[in-house]
Write a structure and sequence with these properties.
311 residues; alpha+beta; four-stranded antiparallel sheet; 8 helices; elongated; disordered N terminus
Length: 311
């Protein structure tokens, strides 16, 4: 780990940047200070640097940064200058912030248009990864503290980052050695009983989305209660039905209700995690299975109604 001291530096607000449209086409130029003040769309590069042991370079931004001062980040990088190519900017920013020279060309992973939720505008972002086997001397005007952390350490609550959140979520969603990674059923089950652990996953989403997720959870529970009630009704109020039919229909409805209740909490956990990581919401075959079970029970009831209790 390291701690950096401050030093004088040129005013970054005077740097000239390309202004781009929603298709990443250059439509003009402006100084960085004006770009930030007016929320003009521009270009940025973000590079994940790993050392020989596969650890990720993580740092705290200096208090003098124009955006997100004193926040933690797991990417080095910055804005793309006017007339500069993405790849050239990625290599330049990586070498500058890490304080090294002779890095291999960073590997491009993906691009996306980032809309900042804090009202700082939007920027076209290109994400890279680079292997850094050299001893680093981070740029003191950019980095106040730094360390190389393992993927396990990045998964802990202390490693949640504010400024790198959007890029980290996109990186994880693209399956690119992100801080999240695949989740086992056992990990999901632990969250059933310790929901506070969900705070260790990514960043807090818009509360409206979390509340909508809870409403979906309650909808699944209501469906489960309806199925269970239907199973009891078949068992208790259709005594004239042959035992085989009655038991089979009742158990089918009760089993569907139990599965639906378990699905409610499991789906809530998976959706909440996905939202915090910025990933696509999980998909499942369960709705199709449940629909088929209910359809089978309904068809059986049709047979009973049409042909009578005696079957």
């Amino acid at each position: 780990m390291g701690r950096m001291e401050t030093e004088p530096y040129e005013d970054p607000a005077e740097e000239v940047l390309d202004v781009v449209d929603a298709e990443d086409r250059v439509v003009g130029t402006a100084r960085r200070g004006e770009v930030y003040a007016r929320g003009l769309r521009h270009r940025c590069v973000f590079v994940r640097a790993r050392d020989a042991q596969g650890r990720t370079f993580v740092h705290r931004r200096t208090a003098t940064k124009l955006l997100y001062p004193s926040r933690y980040d797991l990417f080095v990088g910055g804005v793309v200058g006017a007339g500069e190519e993405y790849d050239a900017a990625a290599l330049r920013e990586a070498e500058e912030e890490l304080g090294v020279s002779g890095l291999p060309a960073p590997t491009p992973l993906f691009s996306f248009l980032y809309e900042d939720p804090d009202g700082h505008g939007s920027w076209w972002s290109r994400v890279y990864e680079v292997r850094c086997d050299l001893p680093v001397e981070p740029q003191v005007s950019e980095v106040a503290w730094y360390a190389f952390l393992t993927d396990e350490e990045l998964g802990g609550p202390a490693a949640r980052v504010a400024v790198g959140a959007g890029r980290a979520r996109r990186l994880g969603a693209a399956g690119r050695a992100g801080a999240g990674g695949p989740v086992s059923l056992r990990q999901d089950l632990r969250l059933w009983w310790s929901p506070a652990r969900i705070a260790d996953e990514g960043d807090t989403p818009d509360y409206r989305f979390s509340l909508a997720n809870e409403r979906t959870f309650l909808a699944w529970l209501r469906t489960a209660l309806a199925l269970i009630a239907g199973g009891f009704a078949v068992d208790q109020f259709l005594p004239g039905l042959p035992d085989g039919w009655r038991i089979a229909l009742a158990l089918g409805l009760l089993a569907s209700g139990v599965l639906c209740a378990l699905r409610a909490v499991h789906h809530w956990v998976r959706c909440e995690r996905a939202m915090r990581r910025g990933e696509d919401l999980p998909v499942s075959r369960f709705p199709a299975v449940l629909s088929l079970l209910v359809a089978v029970v309904a068809l059986a009831m049709v047979v009973v109604v049409v042909f009578g209790w005696a079957g």
